[in-house]
């Protein structure tokens, strides 16, 4: 199983230079991937721009959106941005997408919250056409093609099952450890994948939040998670309680997801510091 680490773009008030430091350190320490979390109405850093910066600071690690709230963005423009990032990074982009649960993000983007599922379905069709080099208006392609970008879908509902089985490359699990539910969901994905006549197998990716260090650092991580998920107090409390807070817990999490057959585990830092990269590397690599 591959192990990646998040860039702290979602931590409120994070400095962009910290993201660059974390990206370089993560590649030096041997992580397989760098990932970002997406949100609009929050004092965070843009997910795609952060990965573009990370692409310029690294040369080998995969670049993963986990997840990008794709319905927030105009699909044609997003298709070109993602194709550019994939090409400029040497094909390192893995696109995890979801619809999210925050109405304020959609209001801020000028999109209908209740239409987010349809917006995502329509967007995927447009992306595939753009990345294949098909013109959308007239006879001109939008970007050099073909572009290969694996698309993983987040969520736990029936629409996610349908998308993964029919148009996706795999599943992007959420950041709360629920091993029994996740195992049954991955079994369902595999069954639907084969029922749809797909060859090969779907990629299985999941994630977890972490903060490693002394009690004050762990407490800071929990405060940051509580703030980030503050629009849903019950879910915020769940994330805070589930946060990985010790090297032993981190290693046990790796072993658990490896035993469940996941292809990649992503650790999202709840504290914005390059030191977190080293602490996690010492624990799990």
Layout of SSEs?
Blueprint (H helix, E strand, L loop, with lengths): L1 E5 L9 H14 L3 E4 L10 H11 L4 E8 L5 H14 L4 E6 L4 H7 L6 H16 L19 E4 L3 H9 L3 E3 L6 H17 L7 E8 L4 H14 L4 H10 L4 H13 L4 E6 L4 H11 L1
Parallel strand pairs: 1-2, 1-8, 2-3, 3-4, 4-5, 5-6, 6-7, 7-8
Helix pairs in contact: 1-2, 1-11, 2-3, 3-5, 6-7, 8-9, 10-11
Which descriptors apply to this entry?
F420-G6PD/mer, alpha/beta, single chain, oxidoreductase, oxidoreductase activity, acting on paired donors, with incorporation or reduction of molecular oxygen, 285 residues, 8-stranded parallel β-barrel, 8 strands, TIM Barrel, 11 helices
- Please, what is the average pLDDT? 97
The largest sheet, given as strand count, sense and whether it forms a barrel, is: 8 strands, parallel, barrel
Q: Please give the alpha-carbon distance between the first and last residues.
A: 11 Å
Structural class estimated from helices and strands: alpha/beta
CATH fold-type name: TIM Barrel
Count all strands and give the number.
Answer: 8
Strand order of the largest sheet: 1-2-3-4-5-6-7-8
Amount of helix: 40-55%
Q: Could you give me the name of the CATH homologous superfamily?
A: Luciferase-like domain
Q: Using the alpha-carbon principal axes, give the shape.
A: globular
Number of domains: 1
CATH architecture classification name? Alpha-Beta Barrel
Can you tell me the residue ranges where pLDDT is under 50 for at least 5 consecutive residues?
A: none
Query: How many alpha or pi helices?
Result: 11
Strand content: 15-25%
Structural Rg: 18 Å
The secondary-structure element order is EHEHEHEHHEHEHEHHHEH
CATH class placement: Alpha Beta
